[in-house]
Amino acid sequence: QVQLVESGGGLVQPGGSLRLSCAGSGFSLDDYGIGWFRQAPGKAREGVSCIGSSDASTYYADSVKGRFTVSRDNANNTVYLQMNSLKPEDTAVYYCAGEGLRSVRHNYYCSKIQPWVFAYRGHGTQVTVSS
After folding, report:
1. In whole angstroms, how large is the CA radius of gyration of the chain?
2. What is the DSSP pairing of strand 10-12 with strand 125-129?
3. Residue 128 — left, alpha, or beta (φ > 0 → left; ψ -120 to 50 → alpha)?
4. Tens digits of per-residue pLDDT, 47-104?
């Protein structure tokens, strides 16, 4: 069974850091692009980042550029989202989603950071930034 499982969320003070993980089970993440998006109560869904086949193919929303870094660890079948200098407006449920690297859907929507259209999605992890 193909699954994506997010972890690493929690409560952090403004200016702090968290590292989210997106672990794949039942399939190899080597063949999948992975995107992150977030959903806060009362706000529109927002694409955060997307990574293609390597760390050289990464995309970031302007709101997180310079603060968040997405990376792959294919040996552990995991993609990470390192979040630094967190702000209260980063508070949301964060989801990872996966799509085959060779698919038209991946090629089009990864660069647009709209990974919610990808074939596979995790259940999300809550990130709360508050003092």
Report:
1. 13
2. parallel
3. beta
4. 999 999 887 899 999 999 999 999 999 899 999 999 999 999 999 999 999 999 999 9
Cα–Cα distance for residue pair 128/8, rounded to 1 Å: 11
Contact between residue 77 and residue 29 where contact means Cβ atoms under 8 Å apart: yes
CA–CA distances in Å: residue 55 to residues 33, 44, 72, 103: 11, 28, 7, 19
Q: What is the largest CA-CA distance in the chain?
A: 43
Output the CA–CA distances (angstroms, integers) from residue 76 to 13, 25, 70, 86, in the order listed. Answer: 29, 10, 15, 26
125: exposed, middle or buried (C-beta count within 10 Å: 0-12, 13-18, 19+)? Answer: buried
* Inter-residue contact 122 to 25 (CB < 8 Å): no
Beta partners for residue 22, in sequence order: 6, 79
Does residue 12 sit in helix, strand or coil? strand
C-alpha dihedral over 100, 102, 107, 113, to 10 degrees? 20
The answer to whether 90 touches 65, Cβ cutoff 8 Å, is no
